[in-house]
Amino acid sequence: SNSQWPQAWILSYLVEIGYRRYSSVVQSSSPVSLVVNVASECGFTDQHYRALQQLQRDLGPHHFNVLAFPCNQFGQQEPDSNKEIESFARRTYGVSFPMFSKIAVTGTGAHPAFKYLAQTSGKEPTWNFWKYLVAPDGKVIGAWDPTVSVEEVRPQITALVRKLILRKREDL
């Protein structure tokens, strides 16, 4: 069932690492999410961070959020502390989306969020910058490896956000 996703684990996780300023955003709006395992020293870093921030600027934060999870499992390309990782992303790319604490995204120690994403999408991350598009109800709509650009999946994301906005309008 989709109850494993997203509000429960994201909120407990956010509170646990002190990102209270994001928890209300996630809780109140139950937005569309693009979950990404990020790394600061990867060949895919520059294009992804730029495109992800553009996406956040255009679509976020009320109906959509990029959720970035630093991970050092692939090529040891995220070696720094959480504080350094966040300040690099904010300083270099003006990142305004939530940056979480470093986690494992694959293997036995994988964070429950990524276990869920891998199980439901049938795709486990094999490198940095895997992108998982998650609907507000927790359904994984798509999963893409780092060779697929953010621009390529943007139409699907936009369509999902548009659907969410229309549904909210009907609820008013």
CATH top level is Alpha Beta
Mean pLDDT: 84
Tell me the Rg in angstroms: 15 Å
Category from helices, strands and their pairing: alpha+beta
- Number of separate domains: 1
What does this structure look like?
Strands 2-1-3-4 form a 4-stranded mixed sheet, sandwiched between helices. The chain has helices spanning 7-16, 20-29, 45-59, 82-93, 112-121, 150-171, and strands at residues 32-38, 64-70, 131-134, 140-144. It has a single domain, classed as Glutaredoxin. A hairpin with a 5-residue loop joins β3 and β4 (140-144). The chain is α+β, with helices and mostly antiparallel strands. The protein contains 6 helices and 4 strands. α3 (45-59) runs parallel beside α6. The model is unreliable at 1-5 and 11-28 (pLDDT under 50). Keywords: Oxidoreductase, Peroxidase. It holds the Pfam family GSHPx. GO terms for molecular function: glutathione peroxidase activity. Belongs to the glutathione peroxidase family. One of its GO terms (biological process) is cellular response to oxidative stress.
Please supply descriptive tags for the structure shown above.
about 170 residues; alpha+beta; Glutaredoxin; 4-stranded mixed beta sheet; 6 helices; globular; disordered N terminus; GPX_CS; Thioredoxin-like_sf; peroxidase; glutathione peroxidase activity
Question: What is this structure's SSE topology?
Answer:
Layout: H1 7-16, H2 20-29, E1 32-38, H3 45-59, E2 64-70, H4 82-93, H5 112-121, E3 131-134, E4 140-144, H6 150-171
Parallel strand pairs: 1-2
Antiparallel strand pairs: 1-3, 3-4
Helix pairs in contact: 1-2, 3-6
Protein name: Glutathione peroxidase
GO molecular function, one term: glutathione peroxidase activity
Family: Belongs to the glutathione peroxidase family.
